[in-house]
Design goal:
Keywords: Glycosyltransferase, Transferase. GO terms for molecular function: glycosyltransferase activity. With 362 residues, the chain is an alpha/beta fold. Helices cover 38% and strands 14% of the residues. The strands form 3 sheets. The chain has a 7-stranded parallel β-sheet. A 3-stranded parallel β-sheet has the order 8-9-10, sandwiched between helices. The chain is globular.
């Protein structure tokens, strides 16, 4: 563990990390949130901290996960109530309610809780806990989470935001969020040779804009390889699958080792969100592989890229994105890698969280 500023807090911390109950924390990751949680837990352990991850069933056993209880003990009579919420809502509610009540007893002696979920209960119930709570803001304001924040103006939760853009979105209700950029392991995401067909990676859903990426790549005449899970089979079948073929392929949901090889072999990474990405982990992964980025100038992308490693088009401008793909292919791959090392390395991310923990745990 790196040297700490005060000998009184140089001991390893016991940290409870609250993760997603909806998706397992394991490769191939369902999304950036799960990848972030996995990396954070491993890196904190590597620095000597004692980390307990609370996550959904099926998570990586190497994390030493304690599974969240997602099957609420609801009677058949209760289920027949006309106000019965959707099963998925009730499952998450029960999982986090049970966990927060357990943490309120703190029989394990945790020094702090890092809430890395998107659920409102870890924020709403934070005052019942005897230890500090850190919540990372991974998304724009959502009704349930914002309600929990605003219900307690003096809520004893320290907030971190994954980008300056996200911090600004939350500034009305969370004026003091500390920015800690997400990071990737630059010792794992290593530079590749480049020069190959451009790549698009991520969850294949409408808000990620795979259709725009395909159309732009066709206009640029480069072809495209898409990699990622298909959480919405209807969307993929109706909107994406008809656009495949003639140099555009879906190569599947790859694990990180396969993604490193794919992204590192591409001339360009295409990032085409149709919403304001709070961060965009695929940008950091591409830069670490030395692959310049062509994308839309929205969300946190302008914060992560500069003119030496990326070319941005106006949001929704498919012709502009096609031009960006061609231009980005001419950028220096070494500059892309250096940008990743400076701005979005896992070391910088964990440094930021560790400093935040130590401010709270003294």
């Amino acid at each position: 563990m790196r040297a700490l500023p005060d000998a009184t807090v140089s001991r390893p911390l016991r940290i409870a990390v609250v993760a997603s109950a909806r998706y397992p924390i394991r490769q191939p990751f369902p999304g950036g949130l799960e990848a972030h949680t996995w990396q954070l837990a491993h890196q904190l352990r590597g620095r000597g901290h004692r980390v307990q991850v609370f996550a959904g069933p099926g998570s990586d056993v190497g994390l030493g996960v304690r599974e969240l209880p997602i099957r609420p003990p609801i009677s058949d009579r209760a289920r027949r109530d006309v106000s019965m919420p959707p099963e998925s809502f009730l499952s998450e509610h029960h999982a986090y309610l049970t966990l927060m009540l357990e943490l309120a007893d703190n029989t394990e002696g945790y020094d702090l809780v890092h809430n890395n979920s998107l659920h409102y209960l870890p924020v709403a119930m934070a005052p019942s806990l005897p230890m500090p709570v850190v919540t990372t803001l991974h998304t724009p304001p959502t009704p349930w989470l914002e309600s929990a924040v605003r219900a307690r103006p003096s809520c004893p939760v320290q907030f971190a935001a994954v980008s300056r853009f996200t911090a600004a979105q939350w500034s009305e209700s969370v004026p003091g969020a500390r920015v800690v950029h997400n990071g990737v392991d630059t010792a794992f995401w290593m530079p590749g040779p480049g020069g190959g067909v451009p790549v698009w990676s991520g969850r294949i859903v409408a808000e990620k804009g795979p259709e725009d990426a395909i159309l732009a790549a066709r206009r640029a005449g480069t072809g495209l390889r898409l990699a990622g899970p298909i959480p919405d089979a209807d969307y993929f079948r109706e909107r994406v699958e008809p656009l495949l073929g003639d140099g555009v392929d879906h190569v599947g949901h790859l694990d990180h080792g396969e993604l490193v090889e794919l992204v590192g072999s591409a001339a360009v990474a295409v990032v085409s969100p149709c919403w304001d990405e709070p961060y965009g982990l695929v940008v950091a992964e591409a830069l670490a592989c030395g692959t310049p980025v062509a994308g839309y100038a929205r969300g946190a992308l302008p914060e992560l890229l500069d003119s030496r490693c990326g070319v941005l088009a106006a949001p929704g401008d498919i012709d502009g994105l096609a031009v960006a793909i061609t231009a980005a292919a001419r950028l220096d791959r070494g500059e892309a890698r250096r940008r990743a090392e400076r701005v979005c390395s896992i070391e910088a991310m964990v440094d930021g969280y560790e400093d935040l923990y130590l401010d709270l745990a003294v």
